[in-house]
Amino acid sequence: MKRFLGFVKKEFLHIFRDVRTxxxxxxxxxxxxxxxxxxxxxxxxxxQIGFLDLSKDEMTQKISDKICSSxxxxxxxxxLSYNDIDKVLRKSxxxxxxxxxxxxxxxxxxxxxxxxxxxxxxxxxxxATLITNYVTAIVTDFNRELAGTQAAGTLLVxxxxxxxxxxxLKGHYMFVPGVITLIMILIxxxxxxxxxxxxxxxxxxxxxxxxxxxxxxxxxxKVMPYFLLSFINIIMILLLSWLVFGLPVKxxxxxxxxxxxxxxxxxxxxxxxxxxxxxxxxxxxxxxFVGLMLPTILLSxxxxxxxxxxxxxxxxxxxxxxQYFITIIKNIMIKGTGFMYVWKExxxxxxxxxxxxxxxxxxxxxxx
Amino acid sequence: xxxxxxxxxxNLVKKFGSFTANxxxxxxxxxxxxxxxxxxNGAGKTTALRILSGxxxxxxxxxxxxxYNAKKQPEQIKKNIGYMCQxxxxxxxxxxxxxxxxxxxxxxxxxxxxxxxxDLLLDKLNFREYGDRLISDLPLGLRQKLAFSVAxxxxxxxVFLDEPTGGVDPITRRQFWEMIYEAAGRGITxxxxxxYMDEAEYCDRISIMSEGKIVALDTPANxxxxxxxxxxxxxxxxxxxxxx
Lengths: 368, 244
Fold this sequence. Notes:
The complex is a heterodimer of chains A (about 375) and B (about 240). Chain A has a four-stranded mixed β-sheet, with helices on both faces. Chain A has two domains: about 240 residues, no CATH class; about 100 residues, 3-Layer(aba) Sandwich (abc type-2 transporter like fold), CATH 3.40.1710. Chain A is built from 14 helices and four strands. By secondary structure, chain A is α/β, with parallel strands linked by helices. In chain A, helix 10 runs antiparallel to helix 13. Chain B has one domain: P-loop containing nucleotide triphosphate hydrolases (Rossmann fold, 3-Layer(aba) Sandwich). Chain B contains nine helices and ten strands. In chain B, the strands form two sheets. A six-stranded mixed β-sheet of chain B has the order 6-7-8-3-9-10, with helices on both faces. Chain B has a four-stranded antiparallel β-sheet with strand order 2-1-4-5. Chain B is globular, with a radius of gyration of 18 Å. Chain B starts with a strand and ends with a helix. Chains A and B meet through helix 1 and helix 8 of A and helix 2, strand 6 and helix 3 of B.
């Protein structure tokens, strides 16, 4: 046991002395989470919009206040004429311009209708669609309030759409589980396969194998530090997504951490399997990146739903372990369900782990 | 002279599929001896070395190393031998002391004893100021000497050296051999493979392998007499490339 602990300590020294390893271990997860969380975010927050108010009455003031106080929009400029629109949009800080027609308030009261135009910057189609939808919703809401106070007798039926689990359609709810899944399989599989092939390449593996350390101890000793660090990593990501994005863990935290440990274990055994198959570090890195990162992003349901894939792809995707963990983690974190709802996926992950370990042992023996 | 046998090999055969890497080897190595293991690349030296050090199992034959059977008790053998391979065997991102501590720990030496031996070793090599330096900062010659010292740190019965002086300058090689002599003087048996024929002259006895077989085994002096050669190099050429 003492021999083993000394060996584990050495592995920690390797990790802490190598800046690149540290960056991959702790820098990339943080950057990924922040990147996906902020940059790829699909919700609207403080979008800059301009107002061209040709009426300047009480009604238009109310509507624009309502729009700006929603939290989705911020007033960037006040335009004076139609000629300004193009100029303002071209600066691309302002994403849309809202125009109230002349005599807006008077028409609304006397004729019962008045026109608002929304002009958006179509060079960013996603943003444009979002803005249109949000503004329309706010105006509809205003209509309803108006109808309520005026009591004109006309009953307005408003379709009410509610999203379950992600009521405000927050993008982080999608990305955080995906990023955890992606990062864990990459770090665990990549790091273990590289650290083991490094010993092979430098000739130290041979010296270790001739030593009284058993092969199992060597592998465990090399993998153990990564297990611990990956676990710390998951906790770090969960904390980060909670503190920065306010994403809570709805289900049992203990269950989530236990499932994470299983997933880490599976990724580590995959890394060991890769290392038994590769002779050089480059080879190990290549297999880990190309063989794991792309399939994980494309086929795990992280970005593209598996249900929508053409036939054949879904079957291939079924062979990719990450998707099962994504399902588990989404269930626990977002829906707050218990073990009863994820036992099938858990079993599949266990099966993958056992298979990877079995194959590694077989390969390891053949090599000697 | 009756000397204790520490390695005894009888009819060792190692096959990889249909290829026979070691073809019926038989030899003995005595305690405190420096035994040279010579042969061209692919002659089967490394295969034999791996079997002797418990890394791989023989296909047939009896191999006893340090009193243990290589087929049945490889773990016992591993505890009683030291090993240094031709590729560099210390960790470059660890310091000299950390490397010594690691290998000492792996071989089960107590921490206090490791410290004591580390001090002795650093003094002997005039290494004191290098103790806390990373291995990557040391020149190759120093690293090789250190690697050897680490391989015999746990005072093994036998130390296996697989082409230990590859790429090292002649002066360092001389110093390296002085260390080997000193270890042999303490009773450690040295089993060394080498490419350098002048080094073979330093050995007590040498064996020459060719195509999986041992074709000659004796003291350098006797071999030179037998083959009517001026040096081991000449002996080697006459044996390994007959007619060439």
